[in-house]
């Protein structure tokens, strides 16, 4: 049996207290049951407002929550569509990471579990444009190091570029979520004595391995780099 028409969707009026949360819950249920499948267009804000018996502001609040969690795809001039559930699951995981945060040790262990394998895949899959993008980021980091300016944003951009070169959208989402958590620790490691040069040297080794398509070398270079980052952070937090 095909998907139901929009007028047949099982939508019920909701209480006005925290109404947008009930709207979110019902729309999630429709997606979970397959009544709204990936790529299906949702009713307009006006239609949803009438069907749920809430204001359009409440509908917009609910849609923003669904969008934040990767459950819908909003296309300018086209409408709002149910998103791919697998991508939404990873977005939900990323949101959970942001909320949980965990200790610094937890965050660094998570990087060790994920990023060396991402570097391995990047070495196997990166094209010439990917390698050139990584080179430009390393060149910018060299310039920042020469000026004595910590390259916090370019550090994060380098790791995200590796994730994109791995050509796996789910891994890219996960790495994005991890790196959003780690800005404070990244700043700490780059401000540590010798931190910029040590981090930059690690990036050079990772880039060289990816450019050579040496997947094992890329894995080992990333693993060694993350261990050195961990040492830098621990050194910077030790009492004098």
Summarize this, please?
The protein has 240 residues and is mainly alpha-helical. The protein has helices at residues 19-33, 45-52, 56-68, 85-100, 104-125, 128-147, 152-165, 169-181, 183-191, 195-211, 215-237, and strands spanning 72-75, 79-82.
Question: Can you give keywords for this protein?
Answer:
240 residues; mainly alpha; Arc Repressor Mutant, subunit A
The CATH level-2 architecture of the largest domain is identified as Up-down Bundle
Gyration radius, rounded: 22 Å
First and last CA, distance: 70 Å
DSSP strand content: under 5%
CATH class of the largest domain: Mainly Alpha
Predict the CATH topology of the largest domain: Four Helix Bundle (Hemerythrin (Met), subunit A)
Sheet with the most strands: spatial strand order = 1-2
- The level of helicity is over 70%
